[in-house]
Amino acid sequence: MTLCLDDITVTLGRGAYRTTALRSLSAVFQEGLLTALVGPSGSGKSTLLAVAGALLRPDEGQILLGGTDLAALSDRERARARRTRIGYMFQSGNLLTGLTTEEQLLAAASVAGHRPRAVRDRARDLLAEVGLAHRLRHRPDQLSGGERQRVALARALLVRPELLLVDEPTAAVDRTRADDLTRLIARTTHEHGCVTLVATHDPVVVEAADRTIVMLDHMSASTV
Amino acid sequence: MFLALLELKAARGRFLLMGSVVVLVAALVGIVSGFTTGLGDDTVSALRRLPATHIAFAAGTDSDQFARGLIDRRSADGWRREKGVEATPLGVALTRGTTDRHVEVDLAAFGVVPGAFTDPGAEDGKPLDTAEPYGVVVSRQLASDGVRLGDTLTVDRIGIRLKVVGTTGRSSYGHVPAAYVTTDTWRRIRFTTPGTDARPGDLPLQYSAMALKLPADFGGKRLTDADHRHRTATVPLQDAFAAAPGYQGERLTMTSIQTFLFLIAPLVVGAFFAVWTVQRTPELALLRAMGASRRRLLGHTLAQAAAVVVAGTAVGAALASALGLFVGERVPFSLPATTLAATMAAVALVGLAGSAFTLRRVTTVDPMTMLGAAR
Questions:
Q1: Are strands A19-30 and B172-173 parallel, antiparallel or unpaired?
Q2: Where is the ABC transporter domain (chain A) (predicted)?
Q3: What does the pLDDT look like over B257-267, one tens digit per residue?
Q4: How many CA atoms lie within 13 Å of B44's alpha carbon, on the beta-carbon side?
Q5: DSSP code at position B258
Q6: Contact present, B132 and B161 (Cβ < 8 Å)
């Protein structure tokens, strides 16, 4: 399974506020590899995640995920792709207030159309995999920043995503937890065999990545 | 649904608070509805139970016609002679009396012709009988006030002595329990001057109105012509309720209160869900980013609103009913199951309509906000 971005251009805003967020960007991402997207703020990292994750339709170009052009899908089909083929881990606000750790995953399963009871065991396995087996009944306000990110990772993996999109995972956690989280994301990428894109400013994440794309002036300037 | 239930559980404090407000609004609407029906019954139930289709009043009286208008013999006879029409004189007068056991009561004396269609008969004891002109059949309400079969009821000030011969169902007029007497006795009550002892033959042969049973084709011009000939103004029985003292004012007051409550209910529910939706906009954006469809979020929000509104309304209905049982017959409160069900359905509907104000915001949440796309 690969993710292929072909000549993607995205403009945002209207009239005098219209800006080009991505310009003629092309890239191919392989399964089982962690790719770090780096670049200054405003260089288009988050826009790239949004386009790849079927949250935003490009003005031009194709987004081929396993042969399906996400850019050509209707809103409804893109929503279906998001809930069944793509996993997200956002910088913050990942969790639903008031729900326990386990319920976060069951809620995601419900959104994806699974019967929560049917995925309970897998949810617990994933939470154990990210080291949260002892936090099943805890609510977001009872978890640390790192633990909240781990819950988000387990939730993203619940639907067996072909594509895992991660936005600044270490921005809100301390160094030790950031290192743990980075290793966890890299490990799960390799073990679950998904295409993983991580937008980051963190050199530790870059170091752990299999590949790095530097975003400059709304284009991928170089691949390391 | 699972997600909606999870959220309800997680935010149960807020939903309980909102549910409590819905309970109070529903209970208040139910209570006002009960008083509206009860007060209405208390004012016109004696008229409502008349098996007449129309009431003919003396022409020229526009309000409080039972007290202010008088039908004379010529008009009464004219109506009696109308082909296909059943007509019988009806007297209505508010008075007071004291029983020989010193029970003081107010009563609405209804003068009816024994055996006519306006004669209520008797559930206990005997019905009115021309052979016993000073007999009185009292409403069960008077019986519960302490008036018993066989009692002698003396009309205050004019001293007419009536014998309680029977009781009939609950009926009242102008918040006063009804007591049925013969038309001759009613004329004595209505026209006797205190301190005199006029015999029926000396009193005017007049009545408050004529109770009519008109055939279906007796309307329009035919009715107008008949009214013109008999110098009457005939109205359908329902419209005659307005002639009862205070009926229109009460209806207007209670209906206004109900209307305001029906306006307040959707605003309160709408305001809650508007705040609730604004508060959870980031979570809605997260759910959209995770692939939840707009329709699903809509269903999710409606399910939560329905749970709060329906449960709150049901508890409110139970509270209003409980109040009805608690107050019993001490106050004019009546909340039949059909009225309660219709009122509560209306509360639930306007409550849900209130929550619908927020639906647009739910469907327009942008999942891109999760990524902070401006970075």
A1: unpaired
A2: 3-224
A3: 989 988 888 88
A4: 20
A5: H
A6: no
Say if the Cβ atoms of B289 and A90 lie within 8 Å: yes
Rounded CA separation A156/A166 (Å): 10
Q: Any idea what the Cα angle at residue B187 is, between residues B186 and B188, rounded to 5°?
A: 90
pLDDT digits (tens, 9 = 90+) for B288-303: 999 998 888 888 888 8
Sequence-distant (6+) residues with CB within 8 A of B305 are: B269, B273, B351, B352, B355
Measured distance CA(B172)–CA(B138) in Å, rounded: 10
C-alpha B208/C-alpha B187 separation (Å) is 10
**B290 contact residues in A (CB cutoff 8 A):** 82-83, 88, 108, 111-112
Predicted complex ipTM? 0.89
* DSSP per-residue string spanning B206-219: -BSEEEEE--TT--
* Count of beta carbons in the 10 Å neighbourhood of residue B267: 12
Domain with A6 in it: what CATH number?
Answer: 3.40.50.300
- β-pairing verdict for B104-112 and B86-99: antiparallel
Determine how β-strand A211-216 pairs with β-strand A34-38: parallel
Q: Which domain holds residue A191?
A: 2-223
If you ran DSSP here, which 8-state letter would residue B193 be given? P
Q: How confident is the model at residue A218 (pLDDT cuts 50, 70, 90)?
A: low
- Closest CB from A21, A84, A99 relative to B10: A99
DSSP per position, B262-312: HHHHHHHHHHHHHHHHHHTHHHHHHHHHTT--HHHHHHHHHHHHHHHHHHH
Are B112 and B51 contacting, i.e. CB atoms less than 8 angstroms apart?
no
**Residue range A110-149, pLDDT digits in tens:** 988 888 888 999 999 999 988 899 999 999 999 988 899 8
**Are A12 and B373 an interchain contact pair (Cβ–Cβ within 8 Å)?**
yes
B223 vs A219 pLDDT, higher one: B223
Distance CA A82, CA B291 (A): 5
Positive or negative: CA dihedral B163, B150, B90, B333: positive
Mutation site, B1, B2, B15, B279, interface A, largest A CB count within 10 A: B2
CB atoms A86 and B370 under 8 Å:
no
Question: Which of the four pLDDT bands, split at 50, 70 and 90, describes residue B375?
Answer: very low
A51 beta partners: none
Residues in chain B: 375
Overall number of domains in chain A = 1
B interface mutation test: which of A90, A160, A166 has the most B CBs within 10 A? A90
- 8 Å CB contact between B227 and B56: yes
d(CA A92, CA A143): 13
DSSP assignment of B71-111 equals B-HHHHHHHHHSTT-EEEEEEEEEEEEEETT--EEEEEEEE
Residue A98 has its nearest CB partner, among B11, B368, B372, at B11
User: Which pLDDT belongs to residue A35?
Assistant: 95
| Contact criterion met (CB below 8 Å) for B347 and B29 | yes
Distance of CA B308 to the CA centre of its chain: 29
Asked whether the beta carbons of B131 and B190 are under 8 A apart, the reply is no
